[in-house]
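Whether sequence alone determines local backbone shape is best considered at the level of individual chains. The sequence in question and its structure tokens are set out directly beneath this paragraph.

***
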Amino acid sequence: MIDILEHLNAVQREVSRTGETVTVLMRRSYQAEPAELWDALTDPERMRRWFMPVTGELRVGRTFQLQGNAGGEILECEPPRRFKVTFGGPNSLLELRLLPGAGSSTELELEHSMSEAPAPGGAGALWVGPGWDGGLLGLALYVTGELPADADPVQMANSPEVISYNEQSVRVWIEAVRSSGTTSEADLTEAAKTSLAQFAPDATL
């Protein structure tokens, strides 16, 4: 069983806005050395175990494609510290940074900036934040050995347990956006309805 509250509370979430650019920033600690976590984040064979299959040439200047999801271009890469890619379009930038933590742990920072957000102001965070929560959850279960060897991340993502996690994630992100003061309450409510319909279809505000 997934401890929903434990995993939700393990992530720090921030939403900011500069002009028309909305940025989601997430931080989470993992019990793994930076090199180990980097390998889990960039090795296609390992990525499909906890995230989804990826194809392409995973080096600077080349492109990648996540199966059934977004693709992009690899802009910068500094193993085992950071990489930056476009994600779903040239105006959507994703950067992951790995920082050594206490003991053998690693602090992961995920920053996703959108200059053409799908909703007004910081409400656009509700399109991507809950999805990244799911990814960080899968990575946590993978590095701790809690995922079975034959686990199917796509099937797991559609399980009632993860759908419940998604619902709580959306609600946490609603509060993160509200606290940021980057959008109106009306726009936040509309974005929240759309986000719940995507990540937890049976849930309501």
User: Anything to note?
Assistant: The longest helix spans residues 160-180. The radius of gyration is 16 Å. Residues 123 and 190 are 9 Å apart (CA to CA).
